[in-house]
Amino acid sequence: MVDDSRPVLNCTRLTGALIPSVDGYKGVMDMPDMQTTPRLSLCLATYNRARYLDRYLTHHLEALEASGITYELVVSDNCSTDETPEILARYAGRYPQMRVSRQSRNVGAYPNVLETLRRARGEVVVSIADDDLMIAKPLLAYVQRMIDEPDLVMIQAPWFLVDETKGGVTTGQFYHLEGEQGFTQGQFANCLGFILQKDIFPECWIIRGSALARINGPNPRFAYTFFVMLANALLQGGVLFCPEPYLMVTSVSQGNNQHLGNSEAMEAWDMYRGGLELFASYARQFNPGVLPDAGSLGDAIQAIIFKRMAVAAKLQVHAHNWANAYEILRRYMPMRFRRILAWIMPI
Fold first, then answer.
1. Measuring CA to CA, how many Å separate 231 from each of 159, 205, 236?
2. Domain boundaries, given as residue ranges, for the chain
3. If you ran DSSP here, which 8-state letter would residue 199 be given?
4. pLDDT tens-digit series, residues 292-335
5. Which residues fall within 8 angstroms of residue 200, CB to CB, at 6 or more apart?
6. Which pLDDT score is estimated for 328?
7. Looking at residue 23, what DSSP letter applies?
8. Global confidence as pTM
9. Architecture of domain 1-131
10. Once rounded to an integer, what is the mean pLDDT over residues 139-154?
């Protein structure tokens, strides 16, 4: 999960062989032997996560080296104040496939992610947060799938949830699919129906590099980013949902690490609604007559939002944010108060 800490800092710290500048770490970026297009770009946006970096870099670099795939690891350090620069310098000295840059100030979580995607040069691009780990076999299979099927611009998959406070055990999987489900360019209505039926949040993606700039963009203000990216992908080509996870995601961490995903789950259900409504607008435009009437569609969207509000209330209670939990419950009360109360009280 992405760290959402956002202090405004000026970075004047020099570290080892890497010297921060506006352009990044001089001497590491854009080495002459890295000008060819790699098969895979792995993107890492990080901030003050030094305690995860050795695990992350060792796991991913060793797996990619063993696979024989051509790759690059594109890193943007969001002006970290811990040992992040030293750790990145050490690994960059050993792996020329690393392209490391450093923000001159903390620009926020999503802009830092966007920086890594902007600099990615691979045929296929994936972004993995600094406390998450790829599962190499399915990820590499999905990369090959995109190479073999040029009409595909995005692959989506579920992910495993990991709880650090319980020794790093896998506690579940975020959504399940019985098999693959594909959608061709412009099939917004069918894809929306699939999302609503399966309660899918399209957050774990692999994107064709040539389409990345048209799929990804500035963080939307009123619509959930990943629904917007999925809609943009269907404007460009085909999207495939696959059942096998390729990612182990830290859902509960030890210490004070802040997760953007957790904060969104606690607060962003109206953004989810905005993303689904935006997606539905494309379905109305490109697939006229397929969607149900506005009332039925609104009810289907609201059903997902109610579920996310229930999750938000449970997380707020777990965090002892009683006033926030009460406000969510009041909003939920007219429709489903008894159901949500029964669900959150066992905590």
1. 20, 13, 9
2. 1-131, 135-256, 263-344
3. T
4. 999 999 989 988 888 877 777 777 777 788 888 888 778 776 66
5. 156, 175, 194, 241
6. 73
7. T
8. 0.84
9. Alpha-Beta Complex (3.90)
10. 98
